[in-house]
Amino acid sequence: MADYAGRLPVATPESQPYWDGLKEHKLMLPTCDDCGPHFYPRPFCPMPKCFNWDIKWTQASGKGKVHTFVISHQPIPPYNTEDNAPPYVIAVIELEEGPRMMSNLIIDDPYSTTVDMDVEIVFDDVTDEVTLPKFKPA
Amino acid sequence: MDQIRHKVAIVGAAETDDLGQLPHMSRLALHAQAAKNALDDAGMSLADVDGLLCAGAIPNEVAEYLGIQPRYIDGTSVGGCSFMIHVRHAVAAIMAGYCDVALITHGESGRSGVDAPRGGSASSPGGQYEAPFAIGGAPTTFSIPVLRHFHEYGTTKEHLAHIAAATRAWANLNPMAMMGSHRRAPERGGGPITPQDVLNSRMICYPFNLLDCCVVADGGGALVLVSEERAKDFAKDPVYVLGAGEAAAHWMVSQMRDHTTADGYRIAGEAAYKSAGLGPQDIDHCMFYDAFTFTPLMAAEDLGFVPKGEGGPFFAETKTGPDGEVIYKSGPGGDFPMNTNGGGLSYCHTGMYGMFAIVESVRQLRGECGDRQVPDVNVSMAHGPGGMFASAGTIILSNA
Ligand SMILES: [Zn+2]
Questions:
Q1: How many Cα atoms sit within 13 Å of B270 on the Cβ side?
Q2: Which one, of B343, B348, B382, B346, lies nearest residue B365 by Cα?
Q3: A132 in B contact zone (CB under 8 Å)
Q4: Where are the alpha helices (DSSP H) in chain A?
Q5: How far apart are CA B101 and CA B90, in angstroms?
Q6: Cβ distance B346 to B177 under 8 Å?
């Protein structure tokens, strides 16, 4: 895991709870009492008429749907080795709670992916420090 | 009707001497050469310039490099549509008296990478929430909305392939176009292509095959704008700005509100139509930024040329010419002349292609386009996105 070749995120103070949650295999979403959860993490509610700075972290179910996707044939790290070669799926997942997020779909045949298919979260511990939220067919 | 209509004109427009693979030229040298060519086109000198607008460079960088001290600057750099937005800002600046002669420059070593800044912070939203999922530049992100559009409206890869074939047909009429028959031999992929050729080309990132994607090039372009009164004194006919619009809709493509509608296109387009006092039915010629085949389809829909969801069948419509040749909807001889320089797909794409779209609008309005000249062009629209449908800029230009 130490030689993970993909690009790694670096948390900011505001996003630290999100990445800490993933490390514990929990998908935590910043949530406004009035408007619900949002993605990506900001320290306020990004609804222009709300802009409330009283945010709580709530755990998402990890269930969702493929909102849209592509199948990349590019050898982009970490999909650049014999064991982990392209093609691979980059998808926008619509979470059950509403927000959408970019991820990868872990699926044997990328071309069997369909828009609106049900998926669930997979916690990919790519390094000792970083866990990425990925998805697989539900 | 808005007060900007017909108040400012483009009096100079040009590319760099060459486009394509230019490893002997840096980013800033491309800015400078484009500036020289646009000023020559206007019959002006650098000493006349007192307003400078640029993208992909800090205005001070370009000003110092050129040796000028402008009294108006704008470094709006939001991707390929930055230059449409610069035109809009230049109109306002000239009307306000902030400057008299606005120079807009673009230079990008998109292929050779000579002083080409790359990559962002791993702590930025993009660095945290998109980059870790093996995003590899525009082919893996500009493609993201497409399958949702296919799903909602029945758009197909065959539909998109017609746009590539039509655009290549224009490139074959433009001596500067990288993939046109003038510059590239058939055995190296140049010259005419069919929709089937597009579908048969190498898969880059489904749903985009190689020929759904723009070329990757080095190059630059520039524009010179002055007030309407002053524009009458030039050797070439002025090209007036009738209307303009801009918008910032999102940044990361995963956060696009609706992946089948570019909100930015709609906001920018509505502002451009309103200020010009025109609608889609009044536009004779369209330059719709084509980083990929899907990009101009979205423009045709969101700018009101075709109802939402009907862009695919619209562009896939063909007719047969007098010699039995296929005439594509947006190609030479078609009913919807679009991307007549050969587009980002087949002419040139540096990374921020919007400048070249505007240069072609100016040339079509001046009647300078030779074999590819569209008859009776009086009103042209140049429109583009910045980022992955993230921002947008729309301008409506006229020769009268
Ligand atoms: Zn709220």
A1: 7
A2: B382
A3: yes
A4: 16-23
A5: 9
A6: yes
Smallest CA-to-CA distance from B294 within B204, B219, B362, B227 is with B204
Instruction: State the Cα torsion B275-B279-B280-B284 to the nearest 10°.
Output: -80
Q: Point out the residue among A78, A101, A116 whose CB comes nearest to the CB of B134.
A: A78
What residues does A114 pair with on adjacent strands? none
Q: How far is the CA of A32 from the centre of ligand 1 (A)?
A: 5
Average confidence (pLDDT) over B153-175: 98
CA of B156 to the centre of ligand 1 (A): 39
Q: How many whole angstroms from its chain centre is CA B249?
A: 18
Domain ranges for chain A: 11-59, 60-138
Provide the number of CB pairs (under 8 Å) joining chain A to chain B.
Answer: 115
A135 touches chain B (CB under 8 A): no
Ordered by where they begin, the domains of chain B are 8-115+216-398 (3.40.47.10)
Over chain B, what is the mean pLDDT?
97
Contact call for B254 and A76, based on CB within 8 A: no
Taking each helix axis from N to C terminus, what angle separates B294-302 and B157-171, rounded to the nearest 10 degrees?
100
Torsion of CA B349, B354, B355, B358, to 10 degrees: 120
Tokens of residue B379, six digits: 């009103």
DSSP B338: B
Nearest alpha carbon to residue B348 among B11, B86, B22: B22
Q: Give SS3 for A57.
A: strand
Q: What does the block give as tokens for B346?
A: 């087949």
Per residue in B247-292, pLDDT (tens digit) is 999 999 999 999 999 999 999 999 999 999 999 999 999 999 999 9
Instruction: Report how far residue B345's alpha carbon sits from residue B356's, in angstroms, rounded to the nearest whole number.
Output: 12
d(CA A133, CA A102): 9
Å between B216 CA and nearest CA of chain A = 16
Task: Give yes or no for a contact between B202 and B210, defined as CB atoms under 8 angstroms apart.
Answer: yes
Q: What is the pLDDT of residue B2?
A: 62
Interface probe for B, chosen from A39, A92, A127 (most Cβ of B below 10 Å), is: A92
Q: What would the mean pLDDT of B340-352 be, rounded to a whole number?
A: 97
Please state, rounded to an integer, the average pLDDT across all residues of chain A. 96
Distance B388 CA to ligand 1 centre (A): 27
DSSP SS3 for A39: coil
Cα of A37 from ligand 1 centre, angstroms:
9
Here the tokens at position B321 are 């010419």
Q: Considering the domain A60-138, what is its CATH architecture?
A: Beta Barrel (2.40)
Residue B72 has pLDDT above 70, yes or no: yes
Q: Residues B4, B244: contact at Cβ < 8 Å?
A: yes
Q: Are B307 and B274 in contact (CB under 8 A)?
A: no
Tell me how close the Cα of B29 comes to any Cα of chain A, in angstroms.
31
Q: Which residues of A touch B253 (CB under 8 A)?
A: 92, 102
pLDDT value of position B116:
84
